[in-house]
Write a structure and sequence with these properties.
Blueprint (H helix, E strand, L loop, with lengths): L1 H11 L31 H5 L6 H14 L27 E3 L7 E3 L2 H4 L3 E2 L1 E3 L2 E3 L8 H6 L10 H17 L15 H4 L7 H17 L13 H13 L39 H6 L5 E2 L18
Antiparallel strand pairs: 1-2, 3-6, 4-5
Helix pairs in contact: 3-6, 3-8, 8-9
């Protein structure tokens, strides 16, 4: 294991990947789907789906846990926090706290992105307010279903989450639902002005939910492991401004995937293969307007109203 880790480090020495100084995840090249560290012929979804369950049930549980934080507190292995206690409490926690060496204490509230408070959803190139928690919200997720019904915005969003994360983690059972959403997450999140602490908190909860389901956490000596692969993969694909176009679903073309767009906090992919589309540049730093207000009425230089 240690020898393999050293070999990985040597291989990555010349890898062109940007990493911001406030992100404690180790830098690593990631291809999709993510593979098990101990067996590169096995995807994480294949390795960790229980024999008495299905890949879809496993992914559904992982995503729902990440959003509700409804799991047993874990030893805090990533990232370290000053008091050594567990911090992630679910993506839908409106009074969450994220801590790392740079953002010592950052209050996080991602709920307005989901409940229609902000005009942050990209609908045909225009910012729109959409309530994605319109059918049970966290109560449905805690019951381990996407929503109470099958026609709501919430149902459509969370079933899309399941199929999308299934691609990333390598769920390949023939019965696994195919992702049919947009191929560019940068476009989907165009009007959100997502800040680095918000992205870190989102990824942190996916990581913690995975560990709570038995995904191997980081080795404290080599700092590698399957859960770290999830954090690294999500970070390098979605959390660097101007990162190169990435193929997520093999049946969709490569596209911009960088979701972190807040100029004051987001790390930039500062290498020769950096690429930014005009819409990304023109929309960076513009916070979403509150529902009921026009985008023009907002100060384009203000921090998003849910980011403290």
């Amino acid at each position: 294991m240690f020898i393999k880790a050293l070999a990985l480090a040597a291989t990555l020495a010349g890898t062109v990947i940007a990493q911001d100084q406030c992100n404690l995840l180790p830098v690593a090249a990631q291809t999709l789907p993510l593979k098990a560290f101990e067996n590169e012929n096995q995807t994480l979804c294949e390795r960790y789906t229980p024999s008495n369950s299905t890949q879809y049930e496993w992914i559904k549980t992982l995503v729902n846990l990440a959003f509700t934080g409804d799991y047993v507190p874990l030893p805090n292995l990533w990232p370290a926090v000053p008091n050594g206690t567990y911090q992630a409490t679910g993506i839908l926690d409106p009074v969450a706290v994220y801590r790392d060496p740079c953002y010592t204490v950052t209050k996080i509230n991602l709920v307005p992105f989901f409940n229609g408070t902000w005009k942050s959803n990209n609908r045909n190139g225009k910012a729109a307010a959409v309530n994605f928690l319109d059918d049970g919200a966290d109560l449905a997720l805690k019951a381990n279903v996407p929503a109470w019904g099958t026609t709501s915005n919430q149902y459509k969003l969370f079933t899309a989450f399941y199929s999308y994360f299934g691609i990333i983690l390598g769920c390949n059972d023939p019965s696994f639902p195919k992702y049919t959403g947009p191929n560019s997450q940068a476009s989907v999140h165009r009007f959100m002005d997502i800040a680095a602490p918000q992205m870190h908190y989102f990824i942190h909860n996916i990581y913690d939910a995975a560990v709570s389901l038995g995904v191997e956490g980081p080795n404290l000596i080599t700092h590698v492991g399957d859960a770290i692969s999830i954090g690294v993969g999500l970070d390098n694909i979605f959390n660097k401004q101007c990162s190169p176009p990435q193929v997520v679903a093999t049946y969709q073309p490569a596209a911009a995937q960088d979701m972190c767009s807040n100029n004051a906090t987001c790390a930039h992919w500062a290498f020769s293969n950096s690429t930014c589309t005009p819409y990304e540049v023109s929309n960076w730093g513009i916070p979403p307007a509150p529902a009921g207000l026009s985008t023009a009425s907002c100060n384009p230089h203000a921090a998003p109203s849910g980011y403290y």
